[in-house]
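Write out the 3D structure for:
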Amino acid sequence: MSVWQQLYETYNQHLDEVGKSESRWEGKTFTLLPISHTTQTAHITVNITPDGEFHSAEMIEKGHGNTLIPSTEDSSSRAGSVIAPYPLHDKLPYVAGDYEAFGGVYKKDNAHQVYMDNLKKWSESSHGFDRLKSIYTYLQKGRLIEDLVNEKVLFTETDSTLKWTWKDKEEKPQIYSIVTGGMEGAFIRFHVHSSEQLYKEPWQDSEFYQSFIAYYAEQAGNSTLCFVTGEQKVGSTKHANKIRNAGDKAKLISANDSSGFTFRGRFDKASEAATISYEVSQKAHNALKWLIQRQGKLIDQRVFLVWGSQVTEMPSAVDSTFSLATLFNDVEEKEVFDTNRDGARAFSDALIGFKRKLPRQTVNILIIDAATTGRLAILYYRSFDQEQYFNRLESWHTEHPWEYVYFDREKKRRVFIGAPSLHDIATTAYGPRANEKLIKATVERLIPCVVDGRIVPDDVRRSLIQRASNPVGLEAWEWEKTLQIACGMINKKEGMNVALDSNLKDRDYLFGRLLALADYLERKALGKENRATNAIRYMNAFSQNPARTWMTIQSALQPYQAKLGGKVTYINKLIDEVGSQLDPSDFTNKPLSGKYLLGFYSQRHDLYQKREEVILSNEESVEA
């Protein structure tokens, strides 16, 4: 099933959401748009009485002007000097009959007259109603700018031109902080204000929505075969923009070049390639905009979107185990895990519990991005049966998981077992200063690892190992995070456990254990002195020449062993024990694989866990 059919069906499944205002970020609202409607940023609200007289006007604060307005195919795609007015709310040159009287100049035809002709047809049609006619009656008077000047919303010079010279004024009028450029760019929205009855604003009123939808449907052209539904419906050649945000001019479907050999001889007309009906195009695009605003994830304007056709909010393939557990409302704080099994089982149970609440549906994964300002591309699209998607998600987060530690906003230590977010993997692999294009491309490459069970790309894994092996070049917290994510990605291939495997005789794993023991011993001797140990300083060299570098590290340990004396007998014994497990033929300078990081992390984890257990045991003895 194509992405357009899925989006079309998603819209039809959520008709009760049409026109309802939602908020994802503070102060920013959005809605599932009705068909034949779009959004614009309005700057001025003009209030009109039911009798068609001017009542008042106010400027709209920056960030609060997002307005749902009726739109035609032509107006939603207008650019440059094209005259294509919106049906009701629009910019000053379209709605003001006295625009020329105040110094305005039309570049082409009289835009206001075209606007008024269209508004008249709608208001006088069988779908017109009182409040729409009130707005039309007022605009017929042709004195909008005059009223706005009297209201001190707009300003004129001494020659009555719509201008304001800042040098001659003490304080800059508010309108010039809201509208960028000249006043011809001011967008006006209308509202009917009555002292006897409380009316909804037109941009929130279903009576306005339905009136224009019914009216515009009667203006429809010829029917054609819709490639999405397979039915004969009114076709569309001008499709929606503003897909990722209100300022986005890129389109997913576009064929507006009639010259320049765009089709390269394959087609004579754009309709020969594919046709989508107006209704399907409107519903699919509006559903996509709504889903992106509601739950899409953006990296450098590349959109990563996961949704269900009936229940849209789905566990995302790009999120971490902890983020998904938050979605399931099943986050449990746990300081230490002996094995990965408990964490994996907890996540599986939460995932199954969440899945049981959902109807059987299709889950979609979509990635879109724009190479130019005018064209959007679908870079990746997959649809899954819900059961199949959840099984693959469960595999990624529970098969060979690792331990991840972070501190929340309250500086509280949090631990989770599973997998990090794909964005974290990408930024950790290439560093926080990496180009955003590289990061978003890496996230895209990692998605098949989650949904198709592919192995993590070798270059990503190598980069993680290299950065984790170079702690001196990173801050302490950054290196810890890099080490954990590197171990997690290596473990996706090796299939080991966070808990120490004392019986494993693998050369790289044993060398990693030795490095952790040396680091622990020196750190214990340093006490409160906050500096890198020799084991950490030589870590990069150790990964390339383990035998030679180990001799250097071991020699540097002798003063610390002498200083601590009997306090490190256990650690010295462990170093000897691990060293004896190394086959003499393996004690070479052959570079270590990423598996040494697993040995390093697991040995260090085991040492600090035992230390915490001893401290806890002592505290319990004192209390007793």
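The radius of gyration is 33 Å.
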